[in-house]
Amino acid sequence: MNGTGGQEIRPDEGRTNGHGPERSVPLPGKRGWPERQQGPLLLRRGRVGAETTDQRLLDTTGPTDWLHTDPWRVLRITSEFVEGFGGLAELPPAVSVFGSARTPRGSADYLTGVEIGRALAQAGYAVITGGGPGAMEAANRGASEAGGVSVGLGIELPFEQGLNEYVDLGLNFRYFFVRKTMFVKYAQGFVVLPGGFGTLDELFEALTLVQTRKVTRFPVVLFGSAYWGGLVEWLRSTVVEQGKASTADMDLFHVTDDVAEVMKILDDARRRNGGSDQEAAERAAFTAVEEGASDI
Ligand SMILES: C/C(=C\CNc1ncnc2c1ncn2[C@@H]1O[C@H](COP(=O)(O)O)[C@@H](O)[C@H]1O)CO
Question: Are 272 and 283 in contact (CB under 8 A)?
């Protein structure tokens, strides 16, 4: 170990870097011996290398195995959090809408998604979805066409389709768990449209976070009593009945078929959580400014 990152430094021969000639040895400094400041390190005499840190970064090529190591992945994960927090920090109050990627355009479920996206936007909420097709597209469409803030948090998938055309602010994630953090962190509530495994995963993650008080502030609304009724009944008759959840846990979500009721549930929760009419006015003002900006 030589105090310079563990690399052996031989000042008399310089270094090769994989695609350049050997470098010259640094010349003696004012005091008569070779000297170099390397970041916070002062290197003198035999400890002075022939390259600066920048040269090593920019010139060096070599094996790329490190790209597939977990320490490197940790940096990529960190960068996803940084990009996510940075991109979403200034959203107005938002609602995350989940639902099937397979909901056909023009179906009743799709039209409901559009209606809910529109109602949320008109109330001044940003609408956050997974940015994919189906119910996600429907909610983004309603929000975007109403002049609201339409957000899509895409995910890298083997059969990726890209963000739907109604996403006006999009972020793409490699990691599901980073993306899930964004759905929760920037939302005041969840609206869950009919969906499959992905939707169920998002629903139960939300319910677990509320049940364990990791989040304390938001309502979970299941839209479509006919679709969700069987699940709710099974939760009551089997899960609660056998003591795997409490009766009170059944109050952690709402089931409705009425868009106006969705808005009322969200509004009541906002008031309970200290939101004010002033805040609602600010949300509406944000939307108006965004609309103005989009005209420019
Ligand atoms: C299945 C197809 C495309 C998948 N594209 C998706 N893009 C973005 N987000 C997705 C996608 N698929 C699932 N999700 C997430 O899960 C929820 C929907 O899953 P479900 O199993 O379809 O219910 C959704 O809320 C997304 O966050 C091609 O049709």
Answer: no
Shared domain check, 43 and 175: no
**Ligand 1 atom, smallest distance to 152 CA:** 8
Binding site membership of 172 for ligand 1 (Cβ less than 6 Å): no
CA 68 to chain centre: 23
- For residue 291, give every residue at least 6 positions away whose Cβ sits within 8 Å of its Cβ, in sequence order, or none: 147
Say if residue 232 is in the same domain as residue 98. Answer: yes
Ligand 1 proximity of 101 Cβ (cutoff 6 Å): yes
Last residue of a domain, one of 48, 64, 80: 64
pTM of this structure: 0.78
Structural domain includes residue 39? yes
This model of the complex carries an ipTM of: 0.94
- Ligand 1 centroid to residue 132 C-alpha, Å: 6
Structure confidence by residue, pLDDT tens digits, 218-273? 899 999 999 999 999 999 999 999 999 999 999 999 999 999 999 999 999 988 88
Q: What CATH number should be reported for the domain holding residue 222?
A: 3.40.50.450
HSE-up of residue 203 (Cα within 13 Å, Cβ side):
23
Distance, CA 130 to ligand 1 centroid (Å)?
A: 7
Is residue 154 domain-shared with residue 197, that is, in the same domain? Answer: yes
Domain range spanning residue 45?
Answer: 1-64
Mind spelling out the 3-state secondary structure of 9-73? CCCCCCCCCCCCCCCCCCCECCCCCEEEEECCEEEEHHHCCCCCHHHHHHHCCCCCHHHHCHHHH
Same domain, 120 and 39: no
Q: Is residue 76 one of the residues assigned to a domain?
A: no
Residue 28 CA to ligand 1 center (angstroms) comes to 64
Taking the CA atoms of residue 102, residue 105, residue 111 and residue 114 in that order, the dihedral angle to the nearest 10 degrees is 80
